[in-house]
């Protein structure tokens, strides 16, 4: 029964869930990560940008690669992405940060953007990597929306997953998107959801300049993330509406099909995860689903103190993946 008792506990003054969720975003600086960008062309005529950081100073590929996926409105340059890249590199593991469509600093070409269920894009990324590099061992790591993405991918592939992919780690994963979205609509999360909404509105305005027919959507009238998913994310990604998107894109209904080890690290005090985002039942019934629920940590937090070099979840992620690879 792979449900772990977690050792993580921050210093007393940093135990508030919102401090954990916000402070790393505002204050954390990660140095010594230098990316090399690779642009891949997708099968539908678009592009995806990957940012590589090799472990070896002479830039010779290592034996193992971590493919790291960011959260909603994130990118490869977020502190949590840089921190995870650095944690892998310092242990001799190459890392590539996957920027979703429209998230690399340059708007993508096609009308659709990204979504929590876009495993087809993740497959194109993995295919492109395999075409150019021969890594015996590949790990998938995802934060928040990206955590849902990598878990959904693993579940969809089930026993047919590429044998080079040895393990998955998801941090602060909204395993049930409906549950998480309801939490984001609550007053306690107003500032978090407003920040996301402002970024999404600004991104959509750029997309509407590319596709003038999208200007028929009154972006100013969209007041919350559900309305954004209803009118923009869902239809542009092939879903009927927000609830159809949340249901079909959630990884929770795929976890029973996982056939490689996957660790889910979701803090009990995460302000934007509902009860359904903690897959205790799946961890009890599927030997490959490992669940760790620290009492504290917020959403993509897990810091003991703001100025520490490496955060707990980074060490725990690499520890888990290296352990299963040595079995």
Architecture blueprint of SSEs:
Elements: E1 3-4, H1 17-27, E2 36-41, E3 47-53, E4 64-69, H2 79-89, E5 94-99, H3 119-132, E6 137-143, H4 145-157, E7 165-171, H5 177-184, H6 190-210, H7 225-236, H8 242-249, E8 262-265, H9 280-285, E9 289-292, H10 312-325
Parallel strand pairs: 1-9, 4-5, 4-6, 6-7, 7-8, 8-9
Antiparallel strand pairs: 2-3, 3-5
Helix pairs in contact: 7-8
- The structural class is alpha/beta
SSE pattern, N- to C-terminal: EHEEEHEHEHEHHHHEHEH
Content of β-strand: 5-15%
Mean pLDDT: 96
- As residue ranges, the low-confidence spans are none
Whole-Å distance between the termini? 17 Å
Q: Care to describe what's here?
A:
The structure is a single chain. This protein has ten helices and nine strands. By secondary structure, it is of the alpha/beta class. The protein has a single domain, classed as Rossmann fold (3-Layer(aba) Sandwich), CATH 3.40.50.1820. It has a nine-stranded mixed sheet, sandwiched between helices. The longest helix has 21 residues.
């Amino acid at each position: 029964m792979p449900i772990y008792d977690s050792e993580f506990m921050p210093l007393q003054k940093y135990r508030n869930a919102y401090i954990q969720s916000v402070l790393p975003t505002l204050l954390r600086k990660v140095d010594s990560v230098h990316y090399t960008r690779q642009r891949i062309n997708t099968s539908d005529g678009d592009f995806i940008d990957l940012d590589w950081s090799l472990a070896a100073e002479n830039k010779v590929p290592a034996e193992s690669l971590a493919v790291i996926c960011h959260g909603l409105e994130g990118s490869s340059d977020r502190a949590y992405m840089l921190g995870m890249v650095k944690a892998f590199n310092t242990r001799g593991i190459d890392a590539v940060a996957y920027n979703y469509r429209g998230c690399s600093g340059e708007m993508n070409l096609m009308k659709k953007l990204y979504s929590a269920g876009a495993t087809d894009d993740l497959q194109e990324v993995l295919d492109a990597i395999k075409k150019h590099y021969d890594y015996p061992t590949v790990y998938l790591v995802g934060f928040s929306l990206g955590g849902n993405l990598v878990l959904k991918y693993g579940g969809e592939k089930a026993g047919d997953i590429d044998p080079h992919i040895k393990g998955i780690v998801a941090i602060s994963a909204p395993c049930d998107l409906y549950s998480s979205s309801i939490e984001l609509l609550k007053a306690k999360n107003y500032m978090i959801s407003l920040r996301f909404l402002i970024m999404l509105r600004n991104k959509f305005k750029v997309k509407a300049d590319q596709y003038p027919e999208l200007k028929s959507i009154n972006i100013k009238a969209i007041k919350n993330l559900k309305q954004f998913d209803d009118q923009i994310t869902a239809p542009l990604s092939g879903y009927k509406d927000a609830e159809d998107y949340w249901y079909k894109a959630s990884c929770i209904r795929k976890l029973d099909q996982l056939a490689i080890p996957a660790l889910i690290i979701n803090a009990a005090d995460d302000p934007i995860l509902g009860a359904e985002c903690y897959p205790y039942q799946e961890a009890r019934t599927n030997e490959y689903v490992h669940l760790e629920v620290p009492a504290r940590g917020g959403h993509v937090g897990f810091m003991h103190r703001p100025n520490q070099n490496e955060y707990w979840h980074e060490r725990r992620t690499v520890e888990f993946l290296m352990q299963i690879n040595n079995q």
